[in-house]
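step: validate -> pass
step: tokenize input -> pass
step: predict -> running
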Amino acid sequence: MQVKTFCGCCSLQIGSIIIGIATILCTIFVFILEAIGIDHIENIESPEFKMSTYFIVKAIYVGVMSYLVICMIISIQLIIGSIKRKASYVFPFVCLAYSNVIMQLAISIGIMVFTFGYPLPAIMTYVNFLILSLLMGAYVYIWLVAYSFYKELMLEKYGYSPNQENKNYEPYKGYNV
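step: predict -> pass
step: emit ->
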């Protein structure tokens, strides 16, 4: 499946730039929240917490923060690749967006299984499912836009798309000495 425009009004290039900027802004926001979370963990005085789960929670925070730094770097790479129209700069974001779709699917399943185990009002279950569905749809659309732009760049550069049947390029035959 391929998308021709971003939100029906912009080109894929402009859409990729918008997605890159939005991803950077969201990543900075979550990074600030994580930094605040680490600061609050440092202020907990409970000796049981310090002895049992302090290092585990801190390691999770540090792991998430390093993932966010990688996301920012790849998003900057997407913006540069979109401006310069380089497929090799866009491809890491395509892989990141695909992994985010898979991760969101796993998180959604985990949250739904967890909420079914507790007696919640039916409206909370529906709202939870609606929010998770909207996030999943947004992640899939971001991946589709990035992948479609990548395919467009590959078509410009090589004259074919990676999944077309009639490829019009010459295979590599080695050096002729």
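step: describe -> Residues 35 and 65 are 8 Å apart (CA to CA).
step: cleanup -> pass
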